[in-house]
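Today's session is about reading a structure prediction critically. Students often jump straight to the picture, but the first step is always the sequence itself: look for stretches that repeat, for charged clusters, for runs of hydrophobic residues. Only then move on to the predicted structure, which in these notes is written as discrete structure tokens rather than atom positions. Here is the chain we will use throughout the hour.
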Amino acid sequence: MSAVIYALPFLLKGLLITLWVSALVVIFSLASGVILGVGLVYGPRPVQWIVRLFSDCIRGIPILVLIFVVYYGFPPLGINIDAFWAGVVALTLFKAAQVIEYVRGAISSIPKGQMEAGKAIGLTFVQRLQSVIFPQAIRRFLPPWINGVTDAVKGSALISLLGIVDLMQSINEVIGRTYHAMPLYLLGAFLYFAINYSLSLTSRVVERRFAYIRD
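Below is the predicted structure for this chain, in token form.
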């Protein structure tokens, strides 16, 4: 118990870093993934090829390898990036590739006649997306995306390998001082579980909020 009490201030600081990294990854990957996902479905053929190549290649690379590629591969190209942002960029690339597939699947599940009907009444492409496609697709998009958010939180633990003092690295550092591994790993597991369980509860609330949309 004394080791846990001693560790709490350090773990809370690391937890803030984990939450900050996770929030940045979720925001950046959502914004870029939605844009690229729409491009994959409705873009011209060259855009579709490029987005498909990006999505397939990134999703086929382990996250840890991608983190090291960004961290060690960018400086020789003249792009200086510190460990924190290297981790954020790598995780964002990986999550954006997944969001692209969430968006593609959600939009593709909407009958094509919906887009044609919007066009027939004079709506622009953006208006058709905002008023016709997105309101129907969001119910199909949310469940896998929120699951992806929990994966982003868990995946953020890998940035500790770059020396970033997140929750995982904080646990390891405290273990190096106290030599009490099991209680601290259990505490870390509980903190990760608390975050992800809260996200799961939130997902259920959000899904119920959009349950009025019927097929």
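Discussion point for the tutorial: The CA atoms of residues 35 and 100 lie 8 Å apart.
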